[in-house]
Amino acid sequence: MEIPATIVLQKILEAEKDYKIIVNQGGSRSGKTWQIFLFFLIKALNGEKITITIVRDKLSWIRGTLLKDFEEITNTYKIPVTPEINYNRQDQVYKIGNAEFAFFGLDYPAKLHGRKQDYVWINEVMEVARKAFDQLEMRTTRKILIDFNPYDDLHWIYDLNKRDDVKFLKSTMLDNPFLSKNIIDKIRSYEPTPENEKAGTADDYMWQVYGLGNKAKLQGVVYNWSTIEAVPEDAKLLARGLDFGFSNSPTALVDVYMYNKEVIIDELIYQTGLLDSELIEKMQGLDKNVEIYADPADAKAIEAIRRAGFNIKKANKSNDSIRFGISILRDYVVKVTARSINVDSEARKYKWKEGKDGKSTNEPIDDFNHALDASRYVALHKLIRNGEIQFFNWHGIAII
């Protein structure tokens, strides 16, 4: 069987010879996740009898990211998996030959307690506490693989640089020959060149972290938020927000609730490549009477959804609606449900643009904002209309 790989896998295989812990630090779309899966699949296809524990901070995030990648790569190369992959199964444990692939969320520590493994893979380690890493290391007999985007320069992961048995590898989009030109152009738009400065897309922090894979000082994140396990039963559904996308940007549909003067965001749909008909199919089963505030840029999609019986309306998208909508949400305690992995991911990366002096401006970046824009559409219409922020003054509003 021939499986196309990149230099990222080659570096991992070389580091495996001499190091216990292999840390994959990289920019956006460098292919880290896919290549680490290939690293373990090679061992499984060679008949090795090994146990591999794959972890992320929350089990719901595992189901929404790594398990989907695992399913895609095994389907692509027709690799038999036992049992058949099922996202709803309580125990996400699978076998390929003699190799066991076990997926765990760190929010279920009881399942991990006492478990031993040959390999452990910690995905998106910047979400993970040092204590969890220490526990996993004590129970791992062979190797530990770690990956992350370096968006916080003060994280404990950099302390591992002091150890002789740790190898840090760095990768960027240039190490992934399978990327489309549109994605490459989007990442390159962050580079602080004169052309990008003129276009208003340049951002040195974004370029350093997501373009070059370098660690950078985290500053200027737009929202403060925390996670909540699920929407409380007595929370009030304000409306749904819908932001359209297609090839490079996802279509995002969220529910926005009010609960004890807190805003709760619950992700319903977050997917690229959806045709209008496919989006409508995914929306079947939702209450069609609930108001949906949608990005007005796609009138055709809005009309198709309306004809399907949904109560959809165009969201306000005036010149200052972005900053004003952000200011509304920033005045609340914002909670994101545990299953809303993409909302959480966006909130970690959505930041104010930086000026030439390196300081945050009063304008957000135009990225990592699809589900957040959908949430903002609801805030603009429902929170104001319900009188929740009547002390706010539209004119001369200051965003701190």
Plain-language structure description:
Helix 1 (7-16) crosses helix 2 and helix 12 (321-330) crosses helix 14. It is globular, with a radius of gyration of 22 Å. The strands form 3 sheets. A 7-stranded mixed beta sheet has the order 3-4-2-5-6-1-7, with helices on both faces. A 7-stranded mixed beta sheet has the order 8-14-11-10-9-12-13, sandwiched between helices. The chain has helices spanning 7-16, 32-45, 59-64, 66-76, 109-112, 130-138, 181-188, 194-199, 204-211, 276-283, 299-307, 321-330, 341-349, 370-385; strands spanning 21-26, 51-56, 92-96, 99-105, 117-122, 140-148, 166-171, 225-228, 236-243, 251-259, 262-271, 292-294, 312-314, 333-337, 352-354, 360-364. It folds into 3 domains: 7-175, 3-Layer(aba) Sandwich (Rossmann fold); 181-211, no CATH class; 225-385, Nucleotidyltransferase, domain 5 (2-Layer Sandwich). It starts with 6 loop residues before the first helix and ends in a 15-residue tail after the last helix. It is an alpha/beta fold.
Q: Any chance you could write out the topology, listing elements then pairs?
A:
Blueprint: H1 7-16, E1 21-26, H2 32-45, E2 51-56, H3 59-64, H4 66-76, E3 92-96, E4 99-105, H5 109-112, E5 117-122, H6 130-138, E6 140-148, E7 166-171, H7 181-188, H8 194-199, H9 204-211, E8 225-228, E9 236-243, E10 251-259, E11 262-271, H10 276-283, E12 292-294, H11 299-307, E13 312-314, H12 321-330, E14 333-337, H13 341-349, E15 352-354, E16 360-364, H14 370-385
Parallel strand pairs: 1-6, 1-7, 2-4, 2-5, 5-6, 8-14, 9-12, 11-14, 12-13
Antiparallel strand pairs: 3-4, 9-10, 10-11, 15-16
Helix pairs in contact: 1-2, 12-14
